[in-house]
């Protein structure tokens, strides 16, 4: 089966030195892949590189079609949606106006059906459709960011830290909805998440970035059950055992 997303030997920079180095990564069609790593490892940069937002070399393919070098708009039109860190909703626009903006690349005839689907997942957005996005709670804004992405009828969604700043009960609800979207709509996802335990529960596969290099890759279960990785990255860190993020060895057996 063609991968939803495939990166081969991808290098990316902000103009100075490279931040991503020869990254290979895959998202299986219809599945969730988690991209994990410590602060500054390059996770957000990887999402920006995929979206065409920064200078990138190597091969990035969306459902088999090369997208390296294409404009962000062209890539969105090919079926990719990006829910960025900080959510990226327009604070001065209403919920409905934000959702309409999300639909700008979608077929007009899909609008009503997609809107009903979004309101089905997020009834709170329907209740608040005339409210300014900037007045929503953090959880509602994250729902709006996801709803706006869904309005583009994407085949692949890139999610950057959806749980950040949200109360645990809202995070649980949000991840339940992400699971439903992946399962019911067959939408593929690449999920960047600081909360690795949560991400590995949702994802089938995962990759671990360290200073711009992929140092481990495998099924989510393999990564979750690996003691060294768990110690270094998954919140079971222990100073006695020397497991500090950023000092982990390479896990070549998983590459
Ligand atoms: N706009 C930018 N211009 C220059 N350098 C940047 C920019 N954004 C990020 N960087 C640098 O790129 C490296 C990777 O940052 P990135 O934000 O991708 O990491 P991350 O894994 O997403 O971490 P975090 O979880 O802290 O956001 C860091 O060294 C960071 O300082």
UniProtKB/TrEMBL annotation:
Recorded GO molecular functions are: ATP binding; ATP hydrolysis activity; branched-chain amino acid transmembrane transporter activity
Source organism (scientific name)? Paracoccus aestuarii
Entry keywords, A to Z: Amino-acid transport, ATP-binding, Nucleotide-binding, Transport
Q: Which GO terms describe its biological process?
A: L-amino acid transport
Superkingdom classification of source: Bacteria
- Would I find Nucleotide-binding among this entry's keywords? yes
Q: Which family does it belong to?
A: Belongs to the ABC transporter superfamily.
Q: According to its UniProt record, what is one Pfam family this protein matches?
A: ABC_tran
Gene3D superfamilies found in the cross-reference section? P-loop containing nucleotide triphosphate hydrolases
Q: Where are the transmembrane segments?
A: none
Lineage, opening ranks: Bacteria, Pseudomonadati, Pseudomonadota, Alphaproteobacteria, Rhodobacterales
- List, for all copies, the residue spans of the domain called ABC transporter: 5-236
Does the UniProt entry include the keyword Transport?
yes
Protein name as it appears in the record: ABC transporter ATP-binding protein
């Amino acid at each position: 089966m063609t991968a939803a997303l495939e990166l081969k030997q991808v290098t990316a920079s902000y103009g100075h030195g490279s931040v991503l180095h020869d990254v290979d990564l895959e998202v299986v069609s219809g599945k969730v892949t988690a991209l994990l790593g410590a602060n500054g490892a390059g996770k957000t940069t990887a999402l920006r590189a995929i979206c065409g937002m920064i200078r990138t070399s190597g091969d990035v393919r969306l459902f088999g079609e090369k997208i390296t070098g294409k404009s962000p708009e062209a890539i969105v039109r090919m079926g990719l949606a990006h829910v960025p860190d900080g959510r990226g909703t327009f604070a001065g626009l209403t919920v409905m106006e934000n959702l309409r903006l999300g639909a700008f690349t979608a077929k007009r005839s899909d609008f009503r059906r997609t809107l009903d689907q979004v309101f089905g997942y997020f009834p709170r957005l329907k209740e608040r459709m005339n409210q300014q996005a900037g007045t929503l709670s953090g959880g509602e804004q994250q729902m709006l960011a996801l709803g706006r992405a869904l309005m583009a009828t994407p085949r692949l969604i890139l999610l950057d830290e959806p749980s950040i700043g949200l109360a645990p009960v809202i995070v649980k609800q949000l991840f339940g909805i992400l699971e439903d979207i992946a399962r019911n709509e067959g939408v593929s996802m690449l999920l960047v998440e600081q909360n690795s335990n949560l991400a590995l529960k949702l994802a089938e596969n995962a990759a671990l970035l360290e200073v711009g290099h992929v140092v481990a890759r495998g099924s989510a279960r393999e990564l979750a059950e690996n003691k060294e990785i768990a110690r270094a990255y998954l919140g079971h860190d222990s100073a006695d055992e020397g497991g500090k993020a950023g000092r982990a060895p390479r896990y070549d057996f998983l590459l």
